[in-house]
Structures are given as C-alpha cells and as structure tokens.
Specification:
about 425 residues, alpha+beta, Chloramphenicol Acetyltransferase, 6-stranded mixed sheet, 11 helices, 14 strands
Length: about 425
C-alpha cells in the first residue's frame, strides 16, 4: 500500500532552469534530458512487487515524487498528480548480464518517462548474474543533487524518516542586488576554446556510454601528497585523459599557457532552506579551463587547484542563486545559449555526490555509475561518483566520436601517471 506523503500547502513555480530544460527537451530527444544513477547488486533479484512495496514504504519522505508538470506550454506549473500510482513508476527488464556496467547504462539511456505523470522512474534490471536498479528523472523535474537525494531516500542504507511533514515557515529572503560580475556571467565568453578534435564530426544524437572504476584510496593518497581535493584530482584525471585522447591537439611546441580546453562543471544552486529539496532544477555551471596543453600531471593538478578553489565554487553558487531568482525567462535562455555553445564550451563534467551507502533489502549496492544528460551540441559528458570506497565514472559520448571506448583505459593510465608523479 502506498504511503501518502504530507504535501506542502503551496507548490513553487517552475524555475527558469526548469523551463529552459523543458525547452531543450522539445528541440531534441526528451530522453537526452534524463539523468540518474545505475546501481549494481549481487545475488538473486527481487520481484517488481518487492520493489513497489519498498518504494511505497519510503514515499512518505519524498512528497515531491507525487508532483507533475502541468499547465499550458507557455505557463507550466507544478501540481499534485491526482492519479498518482507508484506502480506506474517502477519498471522491469531483463539483460543477459547485470554485472557489466557499460551494458546496463546503455540499456537505460533511452527509456521514456510519461509526460503526464511525475517525471521519474525506478527500473529493476534482472539477469542470471546479479541485478541492477536504476533511478532516472527528467532534468526539469530534478537536478543531480535532488536526484541523488531521492536515491538516498529510496535506497539509503539507514532507514530515513518515514514521512516528511510540511516544512516550517521560513521568512521571505529577497535576493540581493545583482552585481556587474553576476550580470557578466550572462555574456558570451571572450574567447573560444582551443581547437579540439572532438568537435570534428557532426553529431548523430545516438549515445554511447563507457565506465571506469578506481579505488578511492588512490585518489586520497594523491590528495594528501598535493593538498588538492578529491574533486580537483578528478578534474586533473579528466584533463590528462582528454590530452591523451587527442594528442595531436596539443603539440610539443604548444605553449602551456594556451587557451586550453573549456568545460562546464555542474554546481548546485539549491539553498539550504529550500522546502522542496527534491523538486526542480536548481543547477548552474562553472566554465573552467582544463590545462590540456600542459604535459606534466602535477602541473595540471596545480593549475586546477588555482582554477577551481572551493571559495570560487561557493561564491559562484551564491551569485547565480541570486541571478536565477531575478532572471526573466528570455534572459535565462540567452545566457544558456552562450554557456552551451560548443565553440566556447564543448563538454561537461559533474561530481555526483551520494552521501550515504545504498542498499536494497539488506543487499549493498556494490557499484554505482552516474547517468548524465546529453547537453545539446556537446559530444561528451564525464560524471563521477564515490560509492563504497570506489570512484566510479561514466563517459557519455555521441557515437560520432571515434575512440570513445578508449576513454576508460586512458582514465586509468592518467591515474597511474598522477600517482607516480605525486609519490616522487
């Protein structure tokens, strides 16, 4: 029996980010705007009825999962789904193997989500060697932070609060004034990114996913030796991997201070007092320069420590939170067009945080791989997450890019090179 959650009295309007994401989905494949997490488990698979009962028991802590997007296309709004049925959101399929993350992630890329229902789903993937669970949501329904918080609510090892009551009233916090620096973020970058072979092929819209896993202790050792954060180490691995993927783009005589390859790094703009923490897109991006022209792994990491300190991320999040509270929709669309232009920013990166161990009915999730969106015009998205002492990474590429299958091996070799350099 589904436990009916206690709903807040007033639903928030769709954010500028929500509406922009819906607009992007209408221009291409809707499933390209789906994100989530693929989770692998050992042992015999539960039944679909088992999963339905499990989700129903935890739904009280996630009332946002009963909301849908309603209203006319020009004025969309959040509304409670009067016919909500958790059974319509739990799906099942079979694969020859659920132990191969590449195969499982690929199987989940193009699964539809019903537009007239809350735009999320949980898939049970059965096989003869273990099973998998995959949570997916439309990016207009949830950003990465909200999606991972939902995964924790539904599958967190420590049983969460059964029912979330109406959030306490918080005073209206009017956004502060927009500074010139904040408004500048809406303008196109002054310079294009460095020439990159990844943009040398017309995109097909067909996607390919590959994955890689590393022991977290290896990243922690580099972090201790260099003073870098684990996230900065991951950015250095992405830099070295991309340099090795297309070495012809970075000749020996290319100055280390050249343009570099620019990427959008996803950041959360969700405030701590958000009363609908599992609802809507509150994501922003930081355009950062990956120093692919620099041959030294340690120097790459050092440059990224300067480029992406925690204080810069926190400041950008605070500025953009104010920006999107004041921003008209048309202005947000203009700013997004500039930030997603592949001539300036041809790829995206994300650090996907899952803060609690995950399990189903006492069986631990032994591997978890992010399922990122496909950003229009961009041929590559790299996303990573930490799970049970391992860092697991997904490389989502357009099929037009040759050599996409080489990325996991290059990621591993980049880790080895950085370890060796840091240990000297």
């Amino acid at each position: 029996m589904t436990q009916q959650p206690t709903l807040p009295e007033a639903l928030p309007p769709l954010s500028v980010q929500d509406r922009i994401t819906l607009d992007l989905a209408r221009r291409g494949s809707d499933s390209a705007m789906h994100l989530g997490l693929v989770m692998l488990l050992a042992g015999p698979a539960p039944t679909r009825e088992d999963v339905i009962a499990h989700v129903s028991a935890r739904l009280g802590g996630a009332p946002e999962l009963t909301y849908r997007i309603g209203g006319p296309p020009g004025r969309p709004r959040w509304e409670a789904d009067p016919g909500f049925d958790v059974r319509r959101h739990v799906h099942e399929l079979e694969l020859p193997s659920a132990a191969d993350p590449d195969r499982v992630v690929a199987a989940m890329l193009d699964r539809p989500l019903e537009e007239d229902r809350p735009r999320w789903g949980l898939w049970l993937i059965r096989s003869t060697d273990g099973y998998a669970l995959c949570y997916r949501a439309h990016h207009a329904f949830q950003d990465g932070t909200a999606a991972m918080a939902t995964v924790e609510q539904l599958l967190g090892a420590a049983r969460p609060q059964a029912t979330r009551t109406r959030p306490p009233h918080t005073p209206d916090r009017r956004p502060g004034p927009l500074t010139a620096l904040t408004l500048k973020d809406l303008l196109p970058p002054a310079r294009r990114t460095a020439p990159w072979s990844g943009l040398g092929h017309p995109l097909t819209g067909r996607r390919r996913a590959t994955t890689a896993g590393l022991e977290l202790r290896r990243l922690h050792a580099v972090s201790r030796a260099t003073g870098a954060s684990v996230n900065q180490v991951c950015l250095a691995l992405a830099t070295a991997t991309l340099r090795a993927w297309h070495p012809q783009d970075w000749p020996v005589d290319h100055a280390a201070g050249g343009r570099g390859l620019h990427a959008n790094l996803g950041i959360s703009l969700r405030g701590p007092d958000d009363s609908h923490r599992l609802l809507g897109n509150r994501a922003g991006v930081l355009r950062l320069r990956l120093p692919c022209a620099e041959p030294s792994p340690l120097r790459q990491l050092g440059l990224l420590q300067e480029e992406v300190p925690f204080a810069r991320l926190a400041d950008l999040a605070a500025r953009h939170r104010r920006l999107f509270q004041k921003l008209p929709y048309w202005c947000g669309k203009l700013g997004l067009r500039h930030s997603l232009d592949p001539r300036y920013t041809p790829l995206s990166l994300a650090d996907v945080r899952v803060r609690r161990p995950l399990e189903f009915a006492g069986t631990p999730v032994h591997s978890a791989y992010p399922l990122p969106v496909s950003v229009p015009g961009q041929p590559l998205f790299i996303a990573w997450t930490a799970n049970r002492a391992r860092l697991q990474t997904t490389f989502l590429t357009d099929e037009a890019l040759p050599g996409g299958g080489d990325l996991p091996g290059l990621w591993h070799r980049s880790m080895e090179a950085l370890e060796h350099a840091a240990a000297r």
